[in-house]
Amino acid sequence: MNHDLEKLISLHDIDVMIDDLKHADIMEQEESMGLSPDHARAELARIREELASGIRKRWLSLYQQLAGHYGNAVVPAVRDRCCGCLTRLPTAMCSDPDRNEEIHTCPTCGRIIYWAD
Amino acid sequence: MERRCRCVWKLSSTDRKAAVRELLDTLPLADKTKDLLTRALETREQAGPTVIRTGISLPHCRSLLVDDFQIAVGRSVKGVEWHGQKVNVVILMISPVTPGGPQQHMELMKHIATRIRDSGLKGITGAGTPEKLAGVLGFELED
User: Fold this and answer.
1) pLDDT tens for residues B14-48?
2) Cα A24 vs. chain centroid, distance in angstroms?
3) Cα separations (Å) of A114 from A10, A36, B114?
4) Do A35 and B48 touch (CB under 8 A)?
5) Measured distance CA(B123)–CA(B127) in Å, rounded
6) CB spacing of A10 vs B39 below 8 angstroms
7) Which residue segments constitute the domains of chain A, with CATH numbers given?
8) Which partner from A38, B32, B64, B101 sits 20 to 30 angstroms from A75, CA to CA?
9) Residues of chain B positioned with their CB less than 8 A from the CB of A1
10) Is A74 on the interface with B (CB under 8 A)?
């Protein structure tokens, strides 16, 4: 898999974790289980910055632009459809065996796509 | 909430990262997906240990890499090193990222917390079979 794509997926997962730990219900639940959500959120933000600094500017700025617009910048392709906008993706893109070796974006919504299978 | 889980009755791993990977290896996911999930769960651990009670850890995250809830429970009599502590039961849970937000993820965490509180540590660590361990946690064991 393309290294920048791997990092963008990890960045997305970290962003989800940070957002989750801002929810009052999640924070309360984690605290009741003896975890430290405030500390974890701060630490995740630090790890995020470290990871982001290793992503090429072109992809990082695209990620940030998409995340700002849609909330989710990276989505999987399932059954040849973009899971962001559900549009069918071009056959040439989906049938390429090395499709995860470069970064593809959905021709319709522009989200960054990866294939999980 | 009836969810299914996989179980590793005797974890061979004695350190955290290896135990997480051993549990991920039981899940029906592609190798690359498991690699990326290992990274996500380790990131969460680095941000703060997920030991929720003496002897029990709950490595967890929501990830776009799964499209359904993935739960795997591991048991170790010797214990797994977890941020300087020994844990005997590892409950790994990964929730999908859905448009509805983290509500279902939170409900699953709450479910696990309630089961652990109601069963007590002995109820969890003392479950005699994989089926009983899954049952104590309120899950159905995946074949």
Assistant:
1) 999 999 999 999 999 999 899 999 999 999 999 99
2) 23
3) 12, 33, 37
4) yes
5) 6
6) yes
7) 3-115 (1.10.287.1490)
8) A38
9) 32
10) yes
